[in-house]
Amino acid sequence: MRRGSHPSPRTSTSEWVPLTASSSVMPMVAGSDAHQHQQLQDQFDKPGTSTTPVPQEQVPEIGQAERVEMADESRWRAGEGNFRGTSTSPPVAAAYPYAAGGSTSYDPSPMKRFLRSKPARNTALVAFVLIILASLLHATQPEIVDHGYRVLSNAVYRNMGWKEKQEMVSLDARLRNLLDRPALDQWQYETLCRHGCPFYTYSRNTYFYHDGKESQWEAIKKDDVRRYRNAMISHLKDVEASGDHLVWTPDYLKDRGGSVKRGIILTGGEGSTLKRMQIQLDMLRNVLNCKLPIELYHFPDEMQDPETRKFFTDNFDVKLISYEGKRPDGKSWHIKNAAFITSDFTEFVYMDSDNIPLIDPATHFDSVEYKESGSVFWPDLYKDHPDNAIWRILGRPCSDEHWPAETGQVVFDKRGNDGLNLAVLHLANHMITHQEMYGDLGYGDKDLFRYSFYALGLPYQQAPKIFATTGGFQTQNGDDSDEFCGHSMIQWGTTPWSKRHDAAFHPEPAFLHTILAKHRRGLQPDKLFSHLMRPRIDNISEPTLVRTPYEFTGDCFKIFLKGTDGLPESENSMRDGQGVLTESVESVMGGLDNPVYVALRDLAQTFVDINKEH
């Protein structure tokens, strides 16, 4: 084979090339070259024409001007500039120098010649790897590149330690993920959400505040979804620009005394709220012997009476803290989250003023649930609505995985989730202070904490048991009745670390949240907290809870059973073990031997008297 010639990939490098009529080597050319090719084609078309291989030296050269791309070959053939003595035409020679009689050697492009060198290939490979690494490093910078938001300034970032930088990058990555989630209209997300939160589960525990909100939810379009998300990040950007901490770090701790503190946070400051708070504080200090420090947040126009202030500080060792920002509409939900952020407590238990503690709140700090990610929330009465626009805003389909949380009691650690629990509080603060945006998506503050966890893709923990409805056999006006009337919720305690492997363990009552009892006048004290109703199997994730919804009449609520009792010996049993138990609070709490039960029984008269006065 001559130097510079290149065989077809389908042939070997032998001196003979099979040339047949079916071979696809007949180019389409002009002039005399075309005439000679036609003669060659005619010769093969004659009957009996031999297809004996022709020596490769006899195969006519194909000029550069006539080269074509073969259908089943990957290379080009290069010729010497003439075909059987026929010169290449001048126009072709001008356009293709190799066709005018130039060298027949293969002359690849400069880049191909460069890459033939092994050192050059190695250099190119190293350069490629460096480019990829640079791209990855740039992607992890603390900046929301695609949307123009810089959550953390470069100056602050440079002064952080390694762990703090990692935590901040994690926050930025989570915010970037929030922005990258699909922004959809209602009809695009409807099926997915209704699958995760079927109406048969929502309808069992409807929530009055969701009634009639469907049109408002549907009116939030995909552009509004993006606006909601951008507003979240703008708020966090403003927090960072103000010098406050978005993520819990040792520097954050230095600004608040330099040591981790545990305590209790309360809010309130006027009227019946203060009187119910006296019941609460008396249980904490004098019955449960709780030693945790207590902060009580109030608005400036509250707690102005010196005697009242002295009573709380002297008798209950409470620190009073005034907070600016009372809303003109009378809603004071935002003071709760503001207290969470501004408090010097790193770990805290919060309780509403209408919540009566039944165990020392400090025990929750050592629970299995709390140690998971630094937060515990207790279940509420209702279930999520699948059409709520919040799921599109969060980019997270509705799911029955979690019960909605009521925030009459919260256990929280700002250090949780590698310090990102503090960012959750800031995000919830944005939502609670923008009721024009979130007012139709939830009620008050209680939904906003878990919405913030969902937005950042962070876990939180639920208390291990579903609530028990608490009340007695009397009407809302205090008349005797054969029907149970519930007006409060007993929330069960958490799981002690020592019981983490005990499947039979059931926590004792931890909180008595008097959500409706505080609005009822004329109730009989001895029947105020006499009984409770609860599912027989009350694990928070128990599937058969679908058979134990609550029934709300507007004045009372109770738990009832759908279907037959699940005990095997029951008539026509469902055989799932589920049922509804009605028990006396005395027996559940251990009777008269338990000083907490005795105190609860004795305070009932005071509670009823407060309701009569207001």
Can you give keywords for this protein?
alpha+beta; Spore Coat Polysaccharide Biosynthesis Protein SpsA, Chain A; 3 domains; 7-stranded mixed beta sheet; 35% helix; globular
Describe this structure in words.
- This protein is of the alpha+beta class.
- It folds into three domains: 92 residues, no CATH class; 277 residues, Spore Coat Polysaccharide Biosynthesis Protein SpsA, Chain A; 146 residues, no CATH class.
- Helix content is 35%, strand content 14%.
- Helix 10 crosses helix 17, helix 14 runs antiparallel to helix 17 and helix 17 crosses helix 19.
Summarize the structure.
Helices cover 35% and strands 14% of the residues. It is α+β, with helices and mostly antiparallel strands and 614 residues long.
Q: Write down the CATH topology of the largest domain.
A: Spore Coat Polysaccharide Biosynthesis Protein SpsA, Chain A
Strand order of the largest sheet: 7-6-5-8-11-10-12
**Radius of gyration using CA atoms only:** 39 Å
Tally of separate domains = 3
CATH architecture of the largest domain: Alpha-Beta Complex
- Helix/sheet category: alpha+beta
Number of strands: 19
The proportion of residues in beta strands is 5-15%
End-to-end Cα distance: 111 Å
Biggest sheet features: 7 strands, mixed
Mean pLDDT across all residues, rounded? 81
CATH level-1 class of the largest domain: Alpha Beta
Helix percent reads 25-40%
Instruction: Please tell me what the overall shape is.
Output: globular
Low-confidence stretches: 1-34, 48-60, 62-106, 139-157
Main location: Golgi
GO molecular function, one term: alpha-1,2-mannosyltransferase activity
Family: Belongs to the MNN1/MNT family.
Membrane topology: Single-pass type II membrane protein
